[in-house]
């Protein structure tokens, strides 16, 4: 992964993380509403709102910084997908809240890893402070999502069983 | 500066290119990622929505114009390319993108694909390839492997050679040829941006899993990888590279130097009333 050194650069990355996460959760919430899985839809909608709030907070910080324009593909995430963004192919129309929160948890852990690694890098004091703060915030999210997930049972073996499947051929 | 003037000058964000219509694709479908890549590319190019047209054929992926906040046309099965060509020739100032699936583009519209590559009109063709007809419940398409036995119409596999879109595009004269994957929406956005910027006919194949009829394709994200070589402008070099391609190498293969086809009309065109007369059905 490309080393982040300046505050402006760091904020571009941080905003991209939060905006992409929010956008994807919005897509997933829409998917679940369309396929009549309201419980999981509500959960993704909540995540969309949270990530969007974070994005707006970062935008406020950006107002004071001289931030360069960087295209999404120029952001270097190393071998990983964008931290905090759940993969488009990981959703299923019958997924349970436990499964959805497991995806969220994985994404939040990747965000902790990203911000921690920036904080440990050879960066401005300002960037170090911000990255540490963001990492702590993401750690709080991890704890909160874990607690939230405990409210839901693990999916049974037959979680994907559909009595009227969309791919029925008969 | 007034608030409205300031709003007009604000750069377009990717989400500004999305319409308010929610896609009806299956959760997990790769086409969600392609939609994300297309709007990122449009934002990167800062295209004015009123100057963009997305034309599609028929199939799951061909629903994409409805989800975009640009002009769109949902054409007849397999005929999206001639519609797109007609539009670009008559309105060359527009950015024309044609989008669809592998069945629509390589079977029903297979001949149009070859002729569009030959003609080399300045436009971009995006094919979301899932190697199956999803909308009609899982039949083998031209790009399906010969031994895929889960199709109701081909229980013993098609046993025929799959269609290699990149090979056909190169042989037919496409001026830009690339492959991307829905597992990397940012990478796909980069390729689409390059394709739109490159003059002439650009072809982008995007490997986009059908999680309902080809659930095993969820593993494509583990198989795809960047091609080990840069794009070439030499068709012979590109052809040699395709000899060792397993359909999962990503990136731009070919950037040709052909001049885009754009006929001169000399300002002569029939008025709509004349056309109306020609199309009148006599009872």
Number of helices of chain A: 4
- Tell me, rounded to a whole number, the average pLDDT of chain A: 91
CATH architecture label name of chain A: Up-down Bundle
Q: Let me know the largest β-sheet of chain B.
A: 8 strands, mixed
CATH class division of chain A: Mainly Alpha
Assign the structural class of chain A, choosing from mainly alpha, mainly beta, alpha/beta, alpha+beta, or little secondary structure. mainly alpha
Helix count of chain B equals 10
- Distance from N terminus to C terminus of chain B (CA atoms, Å) equals 61 Å
Report the mean per-residue pLDDT of chain B as an integer: 93
Name of the CATH class of chain B? Alpha Beta
Class inferred from helices and paired strands of chain B: alpha/beta
Query: Percent helix among the residues of chain B?
Result: 25-40%
Could you describe the 3D structure shown?
The complex is a heterodimer of chains A (170) and B (283). Chain A has 170 residues and is mainly α. Chain A has one domain: Ferritin, core subunit, four-helix bundle (Ferritin, Up-down Bundle). Chain A is built from 4 helices and no strands. Chain A has helices at residues 7-34, 38-62, 97-120, 125-149. In chain A, helix 1 runs antiparallel to helix 2, helix 2 packs parallel to helix 3 (97-120) and helix 3 runs antiparallel to helix 4. Chain B is of the alpha/beta class. Chain B has one domain: Thiamin diphosphate (ThDP)-binding fold, Pyr/PP domains (Rossmann fold, 3-Layer(aba) Sandwich). Helices cover 31% and strands 16% of the residues of chain B. Chain B contains 10 helices and 8 strands. Chain B is globular, with a radius of gyration of 19 Å. Chain B starts with a helix and ends in a 5-residue tail after the last helix. In chain B, 49% of the residues are buried. The model of chain B has no long low-confidence stretch (mean pLDDT 93). The interface between A and B is medium-sized, with 26 and 34 residues.
């Amino acid at each position: 992964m490309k080393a982040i050194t300046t505050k402006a650069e760091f904020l571009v990355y941080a905003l991209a993380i939060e905006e992409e996460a929010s956008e994807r959760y919005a897509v997933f919430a829409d998917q679940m509403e369309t396929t009549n899985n309201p419980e999981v839809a509500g959960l993704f909608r909540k995540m969309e709102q949270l990530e969007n709030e974070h994005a707006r907070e970062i935008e406020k910080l950006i107002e004071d910084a001289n931030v360069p324009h960087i295209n999404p593909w120029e952001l270097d995430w190393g071998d990983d997908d964008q931290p905090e963004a759940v993969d488009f192919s990981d959703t299923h129309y019958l997924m349970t809240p436990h499964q959805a929160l497991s995806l969220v948890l994985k994404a939040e852990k990747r965000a902790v890893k990203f911000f921690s690694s920036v904080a440990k890098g050879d960066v401005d004091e300002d960037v170090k402070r911000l990255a540490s703060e963001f990492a702590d915030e993401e750690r709080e999210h991890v704890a909160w999502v874990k607690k939230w997930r405990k409210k839901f049972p693990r999916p049974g073996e037959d979680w994907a069983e559909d009595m009227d499947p969309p791919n029925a051929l008969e | 500066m007034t608030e409205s003037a300031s709003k007009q000058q604000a750069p377009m964000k990717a989400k500004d290119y999305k319409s308010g219509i929610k896609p009806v694709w299956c959760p997990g479908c790769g086409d969600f990622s392609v939609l994300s890549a297309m709007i990122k590319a449009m934002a990167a190019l800062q295209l004015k929505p009123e100057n963009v047209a997305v034309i599609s054929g028929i199939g799951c992926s061909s629903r994409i114009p409805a989800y975009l906040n640009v002009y769109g046309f949902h054409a007849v099965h397999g005929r999206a390319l001639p519609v797109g060509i007609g539009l670009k020739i008559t309105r060359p100032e527009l950015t024309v993108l044609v989008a669809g699936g592998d069945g629509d583009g390589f079977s029903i519209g297979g001949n149009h694909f070859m002729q569009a590559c030959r003609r080399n009109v300045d436009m971009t063709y995006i094919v979301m390839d899932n190697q199956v007809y999803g909308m009609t419940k899982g039949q083998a398409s031209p790009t399906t492997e010969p031994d895929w036995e889960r199709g109701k119409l081909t229980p013993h596999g098609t046993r025929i050679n799959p269609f290699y879109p990149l090979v056909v595009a190169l042989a037919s004269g496409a001026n830009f040829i690339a492959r991307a994957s829905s597992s990397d929406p940012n990478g796909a956005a980069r390729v689409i941006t390059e394709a739109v910027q490159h003059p002439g006919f650009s072809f982008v194949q995007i490997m986009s899993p059908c999680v309902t009829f080809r659930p095993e394709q969820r593993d494509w994200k583990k198989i795809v990888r960047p091609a080990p070589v840069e794009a070439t402008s030499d068709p012979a070099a590109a052809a040699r590279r395709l000899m060792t391609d397993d359909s999962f190498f990503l990136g731009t293969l070919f950037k040709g130097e052909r001049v885009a086809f754009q006929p001169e009309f000399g300002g002569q065109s029939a008025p709509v009333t004349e056309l109306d007369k020609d199309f009148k059905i006599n009872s």
